[in-house]
Amino acid sequence: METMRLVVTGTVGAGKSTFVRTFSQTTVIDTERKATDNTSLMKKRTTVAFDFGTRILGRDMELQVYGTPGQSRFDFMWDLLIRRAHAYILLVAANRSSSFNDAREIISFMNSRVQIPMIIGLTCMDLPGALGQEHVAFALGFMNDKNRPPIVTLNPNEKTSVFESLMVLMAHQLLQSSKSKGNAALGNVGGSRQAEPLKSRTKYQWPKQQFSSGL
Ligand SMILES: Nc1nc2c(ncn2[C@@H]2O[C@H](COP(=O)(O)OP(=O)(O)O)[C@@H](O)[C@H]2O)c(=O)[nH]1
Ligand SMILES: [Mg+2]
């Protein structure tokens, strides 16, 4: 059985835990605890380690989805989860511009650890005050539309929406891996059945945030 590990990261309240719950075929392992700090102003419970959900695709692929905590004080978990991931989606609540800075920092953190395919998922587009894709892309540092990760809009409460965004993420991952040397992403068919994260074998050209280069 092939295993693909995808990470759902993003800011507090962007819908990561909801995403994993909507996705999973099996009972989700979650580590939500009562929020005690500033997060409690936004929601009662918060993820302190990770959410884990899984789903079998076809006969021989298991898709594992790991949701990270949103708060940077748990960034040791970001590190642990991203290093084993094949690709990730960053969720950003489009109606909460105050969180865009945190989202940018999460991208920089991930990018400093691994170079793997990623997409951006805009949530809360159905809520008042939601900003458009272009605006959020700029705020996250992607000024150049020719050099930016794919951006999707989704509602993590809706199955179709979650599956569509996962399809975009997987397609992006597969496209990048087929471009890379050695056809890495699906591993060594017939040999080890464990797919290897791309970072070890490919030269994935991760879209650069332009803020960091001063543009
Ligand atoms: N209406 C709406 N609510 C959303 C959306 N995304 C997330 N939420 C809600 O935001 C709240 C926080 O979600 P949660 O999954 O705990 O966020 P996390 O901190 O990223 O794990 C939940 O009540 C979700 O149902 C969205 O696109 N639309
Ligand atoms: Mg959570």
UniProtKB/TrEMBL annotation:
This is GTPase. It comes from the Bacteria. GO terms for molecular function: GTP binding; GTPase activity. SUPFAM superfamilies: P-loop containing nucleoside triphosphate hydrolases. Signal peptide: none annotated. Coiled coil: none annotated. PANTHER family: ATP/GTP-BINDING PROTEIN-RELATED, GLIDING MOTILITY PROTEIN MGLA. It comes from Coleofasciculus chthonoplastes PCC 7420. Pfam families: Ras. Gene3D superfamilies: P-loop containing nucleotide triphosphate hydrolases. Residues 185-215 are annotated as: Disordered.
